[in-house]
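Need a sequence for this fold. Nothing fancy.
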């Protein structure tokens, strides 16, 4: 047995490069909570994008049940963490903290075995497609065009997504104009995706979805709030685009409910509970004949996605690409829209640039264990 020796959780807050908004939220900074675990002379790395409170939960609630456990028994540690937060509620902060710790434990296990994480899970593909994601409602047209056009024409990423549903669904004309502008920018052959972040009512979403068929929109993400399963199903059954949701799912029960109402199930490894839950949710989708798509954090999704036969693509999300390229040595760039791992590096293949990112730290480092 190789015991887990320590757990460290640190919050960093990084300003965005411009003010950003989608249909239902505006922001100008992003907090990333990084977890580092050690055992057997190795360290593992995981993270989540959530409130700094995730770091406090990891240190106060999760570290006591993880430290001392066998580093090779990641599912056992996951189960103990889920049990520990029963009274606090798994959905949200606790689940995000569990996700960060669980992914760090998988990274540690793969490093102890000296293999890339995708090999530990069982590699099903040598690369995974990404889609460019940004197109915030706050962007002036020139910025939108430069971002979407850059992905398609300069980087060879032939799938891009923009935000719609501006002002909680109150600016339909501007939404449609921006979708038209996006199609003009990317040309006829790129796949065009939209994300309303739950801003529309179901009838409104159906009307907007049909209007956007003129520009061959292929993906309509969260046309209505994803808690409204019946509304999602109504939209899915009425529009040509694939309806997608799942980014807030925090356990298999919520994934199961959503899987009956979407065309593609989104899974976020930084929220759902981690890599075991990611693969179980993907299996649940496979049993319904559905693809899955990785939401957020492309560097953290790469290895688990490679071990998932029914993965469609990963989200090359502007904010997280920017943060992950600053934070991690070993950051991978897509080539012609396909992200591939460096199989010469164990685990996730990433190292935190602690000295470089210390200026973003918003919570004191606190280590449990040694
Ligand atoms: Mg979304």
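Here you go.
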């Amino acid at each position: 047995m190789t015991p887990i020796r320590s757990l460290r959780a640190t919050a960093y807050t990084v300003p965005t490069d411009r003010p950003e908004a989608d249909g239902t939220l505006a922001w100008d900074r992003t907090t990333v909570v990084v977890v580092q675990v050690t055992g057997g002379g190795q360290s593992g790395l995981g993270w989540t994008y959530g409130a700094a409170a995730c770091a406090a939960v990891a240190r106060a609630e999760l570290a006591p049940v993880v430290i001392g456990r066998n580093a090779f028994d990641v599912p056992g540690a996951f189960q103990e963490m889920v049990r520990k937060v029963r009274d606090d509620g798994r959905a949200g902060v606790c689940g995000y903290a569990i996700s960060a710790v669980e992914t760090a434990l998988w990274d540690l296990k793969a490093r102890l075995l000296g293999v890339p994480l995708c090999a530990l899970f069982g590699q099903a593909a040598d690369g995974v497609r990404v889609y460019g994601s940004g197109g915030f409602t706050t962007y002036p047209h020139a910025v939108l065009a430069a971002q979407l056009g850059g992905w398609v024409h300069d980087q060879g990423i032939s799938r891009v997504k923009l935000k719609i549903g501006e002002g909680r669904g109150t600016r339909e004309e501007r939404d449609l104009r921006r979708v038209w502008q996006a199609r003009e920018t990317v040309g006829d052959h790129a796949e065009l995706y939209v994300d309303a972040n739950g801003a529309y009512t179901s009838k409104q979403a159906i009307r907007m979805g049909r209007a956007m068929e003129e520009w061959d929109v292929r993906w309509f993400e969260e046309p209505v709030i994803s808690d409204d399963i019946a509304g999602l199903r109504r939209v899915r059954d009425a529009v040509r685009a694939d309806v997608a949701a799942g980014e807030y799912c925090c356990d298999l029960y919520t994934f199961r409910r959503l899987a009956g109402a979407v065309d593609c199930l989104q899974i976020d490894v930084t929220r759902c509970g981690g890599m075991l839950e990611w693969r179980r949710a993907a299996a649940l989708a496979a049993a319904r004949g559905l693809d899955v798509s990785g939401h957020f954090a492309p560097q953290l999704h790469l290895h688990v996605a490679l071990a998932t036969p029914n993965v469609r693509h990963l989200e090359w999300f502007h904010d997280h690409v920017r943060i992950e390229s600053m934070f991690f040595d070993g950051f991978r760039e897509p080539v012609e829209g396909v992200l591939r791992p460096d199989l010469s590096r164990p685990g996730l293949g990433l190292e935190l640039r602690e000295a470089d990112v210390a200026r973003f730290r918003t919570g004191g480092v606190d280590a449990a264990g040694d």
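For context: The longest helix spans residues 93-113.
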